[in-house]
User: Which sequence fits this backbone?
């Protein structure tokens, strides 16, 4: 048996031995990748990744977090205070929603990795979606009647 094959005794019943794609050293190096890099690597859009990095850094500065393990003690109260601070800066609702989405995504990842017990962002209300519906000024009845009374355009 070579270094790159798996012994048959380590395989599940019925499994076929395959060549290893990674050496043992490569495998262990990947296990040492910092979790933040793994989380960021899963964000495909470079602009979103950059925005999320900035949002995360901003929250960490706000909360005084300088070590990853401090995320374990982040409570909903921290997030509510941060949201209130963002609102006081008159940031757009979409910006505040994105900042909270960045933290929620990170906490979901940390929950999956069993690094935190719950997502503290869940349940934190986000600003309402701004929609263009109803923002177009309507014309009054008298303006509509005036348009209808206009003579047909001569072409």
Assistant:
């Amino acid at each position: 048996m070579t270094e790159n094959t798996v012994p048959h005794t380590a395989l599940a019943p019925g499994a076929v031995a395959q060549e290893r794609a990674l050496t043992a050293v490569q495998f262990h190096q990947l296990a040492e990748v910092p979790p933040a890099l793994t989380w960021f690597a899963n964000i495909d859009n470079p602009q979103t990744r950059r925005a999320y990095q900035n949002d995360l850094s901003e929250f960490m500065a706000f909360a005084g977090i300088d070590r990853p393990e401090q995320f374990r003690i982040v409570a909903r109260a921290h997030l509510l205070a941060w949201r209130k601070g963002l609102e006081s800066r008159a940031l757009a609702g979409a910006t505040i929603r994105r900042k909270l989405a960045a933290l929620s995504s990170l906490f979901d990842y940390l929950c999956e990795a069993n690094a935190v017990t719950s997502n503290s962002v869940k349940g934190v209300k986000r600003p309402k979606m701004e929609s263009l519906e109803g923002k177009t000024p309507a014309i009054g009845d008298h303006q509509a009647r005036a348009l209808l009374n206009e003579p047909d355009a001569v072409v």
